[in-house]
Design brief:
It is a single chain. The protein has helices spanning 32-42, 69-79, 184-187, 212-216, 298-301, 344-361, 381-385, 394-397, 478-483, 494-502, and strands at residues 22-24, 29-31, 46-48, 59-61, 66-68, 82-87, 90-95, 105-106, 109-117, 128-131, 137-139, 145-151, 155-159, 166-169, 178-179, 190-193, 196-199, 207-211, 234-237, 248-251, 264-267, 270-272, 286-292, 309-314, 320-333, 401-413, 417-429, 436-449, 455-468. The protein is of the alpha+beta class. It has five domains: 22-106, Phage tail protein beta-alpha-beta fold, CATH 3.55.50; 109-184, Immunoglobulin-like (Sandwich), CATH 2.60.40; 188-314, Ferric Hydroxamate Uptake Protein, Chain A, domain 1; 320-332 and 405-468, Porin (Beta Barrel), CATH 2.40.160.220; 344-397 and 473-502, no CATH class. Strand 6 (82-87) and strand 7 form a beta hairpin.
Length: 512
Amino acid sequence: MLVNFASIMQAKGVYKGKEEVSIRLSASELSVQQFFIEVERETPFKFSYENKELDKSEIIQFKYKTGTVEDRLKDVGQQSSLSFRKMNHIIHVALNEPAEVRSIEEADWGQVSGTVTDENGEPLPGASVTVAGTAAGTVTDLDGNYNITVPDGATLIFSYIGFEAMRVSVDNRTKIDVSLQADISSLDEVVVVGYGTVNKRDLTSAISQVSGKDIENRFTSRIDEALQGKLAGVSVQQTSGLPGAAPVIRIRGTSSITEGNQPLWVVDGMPIEDANIIANINMSDAESVEVLKDAAAAAIYGSRASNGVVIITTKKGKSGKTNISYNMRYGIQEPEKLVDFVSGPEHAELLAEWRAWRWESTGGDPNEPNASRPANMRIDPNWLTGDVPNYNIQDHLFRTASIQNHNISLSGGNDKTTYFMSLDYLDQEGIAVGTSFERFSIRTNVESKVTDLITIGLNIAGSTSTQIDANSEGKDRNINTSLRHGALVDASDFYFWMMVLHLGMIIHLSMG
């Protein structure tokens, strides 16, 4: 079998020449699997192959135990149906086709550069350039220029938001300039702005959009929380684990240190300045959400829009037969990671050391009897013997919580009048025992076309919600305070409960 670790010419590749790597095998007779293991252990090379295709139990006879990796791969290739191809430090292993002879060859990699522009010749900064079928890729700079390393026979994929992607074969070229064409279909999408709707092609303002379907697919209790990671330039941070808690939303960063930074919310054309009301909107009712991010929003909503505007458009009826749909979702939530506590005996030992140190640091005699010391400096004899309880208070603080959502909607109409109505029920337990969020909402809208120029509509929405917080969050609240007691105190202990209740903590813990 012909083996060729060919050096790569400097003008074409990344590497300047070949590197001879030697190896000493442990035996002159090894299985293919043992050979692979020894090469990977003794050299920088790693093998890549499909397990299901290779018979790694095949025995190979090596004439010499020492030599280069290239020589030893010759032995394997001559006695098996395997072929090898080296790409950098990875040796790819494949099965030869019947009666086919392959060599070990090193893939040639070269540099390709160029410029990405639009149809008018304007550079596109941040355009994506990737090698098809691989994870290799880069982005263009501010002038639309790029530089990427590619293997022989590669195909490059050029893409940019709002433009059609383009595939180009390299064909041994070192410079490839491309001109991307605008994606006409995306420009025909309708976007809601403060004064109506426009096509994307006619839009000059900075607007991000997410569809109602994308929002509905995220199982959360609030529509604003469902926007996380969906809109460019919009930061959504969940700062509380309490069910139904409002996230912190920033559009293009923080605009003020002393004043509020919450955006203005607009639901079906009605401005809402209290973000807490958003918690009462059923996510299944959302048709789309648009975010106005530039100064143009101030021309519509004034100074209230200084932190951006979030526009929520709810679903409306469509002409046709009455359509009734029901949707039910159920899920569970649990703590991702709990606190790792020391055991009861370990806690007791540390507590004894601390009280002894505290007694001596205040001038106390270490030989003074325990009974004559102040109560907060005495050492329980059981602490020294390890004869103490070993409780896990987290079993009483946390739980596997359920979340369920039921939604039923009714829609229909004719050419003149359309209607839509929905009922929604959400019940979310918190992972902290005693916390929960429950919401019931109803929404109805009717639109009637009086003339070709006049359409009247009626929107009615109502909701009721209950959020229960068992003083769970904060430095001196139930969870933090309870965890300080460690493994020595049982949550069902009467005296512990008297102390906790006196401090107004853990009022909703289950006794187990």
